[in-house]
């Protein structure tokens, strides 16, 4: 008898190697994946504009990175005593314009260079909703807790969604390596503040737009992350206390399924060994002068040296 619905990720013909660069952008699930890659010492860059949720804003971010845009003070607004970019997450806000601009422009430059060497891109869409900033009559990525009277909230149309996705693909194919693989996912995090019915409609619009946009494109794939959590892990024990975000157990389950489908055998071993080293490094002792503990550290350092010999980029 079966007591659950197992959702599989189709095995990729192109595997992620230990020297590949992985770029991720989008909702917080993109960050979860980035953290797993980083722990495994795989080259990874995530969300240079901060967490972004909708396809239009993600396309705009990729466009700015592609153009190597340099933000100026007139690209910011002053609100709540902070200089703010409506294209960015609130983590870029600062009381001083030059500090916001320095962080924004440094991230864009770094992302532009990284994308030119990128082999895999993971894009995670969270919502079809977007906000228009009425004083400037433009669509924005983040409201930064500015009063709602300055914004109009609406769904992106199907045409806007597919145009954003297709233009994103075109930009990435041009700036990344020739054989770049672009992996699309829909975040399993429910946007309950929009309403449960509205959230489901929002996710449905994303799913329809993604599948239409990537149909027939050999370098584009859909990862059923949303379906894994909704159907395979259909139980609240796989959620954090807020009952919205997947917990560490769920993220690990999805990560392992992704790895089985996309990692080369060498990459699986490399990541597994590096995770063991990280676990060992987190070991606490009451006596760091103890000869046995020093011998333990020497053994770990030797393993780090052996792992470093396998790749050109610096690890640990």
From TrEMBL:
Signal peptide: none annotated. This is GSCFA domain-containing protein. It holds the Pfam family GSCFA. It comes from Epilithonimonas vandammei. It comes from the Bacteria. One of its GO terms (molecular function) is hydrolase activity, acting on ester bonds. InterPro entries: GSCFA, SGNH_hydro_sf. Residues 22-258 form the GSCFA domain.
């Amino acid at each position: 008898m079966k007591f659950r619905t197992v959702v599989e990720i189709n095995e990729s013909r192109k595997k992620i190697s230990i020297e590949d660069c992985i770029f991720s952008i989008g909702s917080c699930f993109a960050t979860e994946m980035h953290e797993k890659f980083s722990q495994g010492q795989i080259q990874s860059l995530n969300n240079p504009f901060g967490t972004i949720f909708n396809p239009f804003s993600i396309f705009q971010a990729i466009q700015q990175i592609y153009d190597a845009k340099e933000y100026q003070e007139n690209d910011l607004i002053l609100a709540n005593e902070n200089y703010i970019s409506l294209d960015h997450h609130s983590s870029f806000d600062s009381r001083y314009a030059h500090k916001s601009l320095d962080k924004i422009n440094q991230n864009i430059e770094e992302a532009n260079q990284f994308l030119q060497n990128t082999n895999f891109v993971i894009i995670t869409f969270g919502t079809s909703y977007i906000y228009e900033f009425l004083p400037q009559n433009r669509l924005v990525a983040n409201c930064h807790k500015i009063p709602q009277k300055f914004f109009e909230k609406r769904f992106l149309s199907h045409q806007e969604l597919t145009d954003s996705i297709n233009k994103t693909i075109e930009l990435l194919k041009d700036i990344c390596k020739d054989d770049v693989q672009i992996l699309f996912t829909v975040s399993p995090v429910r946007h309950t503040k929009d309403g449960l019915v509205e959230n489901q409609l929002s996710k449905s619009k994303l799913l329809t737009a993604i599948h239409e946009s990537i149909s027939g494109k050999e370098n584009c794939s859909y990862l059923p992350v949303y379906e894994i959590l909704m159907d395979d892990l259909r139980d609240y024990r796989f959620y954090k206390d807020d009952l919205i975000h997947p917990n560490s157990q769920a993220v690990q389950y999805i990560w392992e399924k992704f790895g089985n489908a996309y990692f080369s055998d060498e990459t699986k071993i490399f990541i597994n060994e590096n995770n063991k080293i990280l676990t060992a490094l987190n070991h606490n002792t009451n006596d760091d002068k103890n000869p046995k503990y020093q011998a333990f550290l020497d053994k770990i350092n030797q393993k780090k040296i052996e792992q470093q010999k396998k790749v050109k980029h610096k690890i640990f």
